[in-house]
Amino acid sequence: MEQGKAAVGWAARDSSGALSPYSFSRRAQEDADVTIKVLYCGICHTDLHIIKNDWSNAMYPVVPGHEIVGVVTDVGAGVKKFKAGDKVGVGYFVMSCRSCECCGKGYENYCSKMVTTCNSIDHDHDGAVTQGGFSDVIVVDEYYVLRVPAGLPLDSTAPLLCAGVTVYSPMVQHGLNSPGKHLGVVGLGGLGHVAVKFGKAFGMRVTVISTSPGKRQEALEHLGADEFLVSRDQEQMAAAAGTMDGIIDTVSAWHPITPLFSLMKPMGQIVFVGGPTKPLELPAYAIVPGGKGIAGTCVGGIRDCQAMLDFAGEHGITAEVEVINIDYVNTALERLEKNDVRYRFVIDVAGSLGSGAA
Length: 358
Hints:
Blueprint: E1 6-12, E2 19-25, E3 33-42, H1 45-51, E4 67-75, E5 87-90, E6 93-95, H2 101-104, E7 115-116, E8 137-141, E9 146-147, H3 154-157, H4 163-173, E10 182-186, H5 192-201, E11 205-210, H6 216-222, E12 227-230, H7 234-239, E13 244-249, H8 258-262, E14 264-272, E15 293-296, H9 302-315, E16 321-324, H10 329-337, E17 344-348, H11 349-352
Parallel strand pairs: 10-11, 10-13, 11-12, 13-14, 14-15, 16-17
Antiparallel strand pairs: 1-2, 3-4, 3-8, 3-17, 4-5, 5-9, 6-7
Helix pairs in contact: 4-5, 4-9
């Protein structure tokens, strides 16, 4: 069997979540594969959950990272979509069965055999644990590689591979992308700020809903939201009752959700894209009288992700990022845990990942 490609990354070895240099081997490139030099990789809250084993599924050592932007360095003999030098992205997953109903409908993200970009078993290849984008190189089947539109800055495009498609996909699926409709965005963090940008690009009226009055100026003046609503202010909430066509809730911590349903018109839809670890409380009276719906979304399929990138390219949409060197990553993760980032950390992998791994 052909030997895999040597790689260098930063990995967590235990539930402390502390990352340190790590040498490993990528799987050997096959005919359908693309080899990518990683240029930038965003840091997602999911990475924090994985490295700290919050979901009790960590397979250490773990190299996190699934918001990857890079350049193609080599392609297999059967690759048709990409060539060396192409700017590309890799998101939350790198494999699915491609034969089930979900895959057939373009929802590979819900395939029962989906292989995530890190901390998953790659049964179709070498059976090893997948390692993510906090590393210098990655080998991916071309089907799961996305084309980055020309003109988008690569560092601030990286978070779109997860945060971007996570909000874009449900907006399209649930009709929250029509000009003139009123969208509520709960939370103004890594996901929320991108949702505001997509909502405005769709031509919607966008209201940011937050517990933090101090974010009003940022939401209205910098991100272009139309209104700002403090969720703890009962008068503001009452004044906005029944005005929204739908809501994207991006908050990853427990929060009261019953008041949010009162903001929506009858038949309104709320979509949860955050992942609180404690159960949310929802009494029937919040949804039954107005026929209101509730849904969840986990990233998006390949089709939606490429459509999102193309839309972002047309409208110049990127994330607001703080670019860091790899040796700052542990501090960045500590800050992320405290929500001390505006709004997404992105690692300059190619510019800062040295050798000396172990």
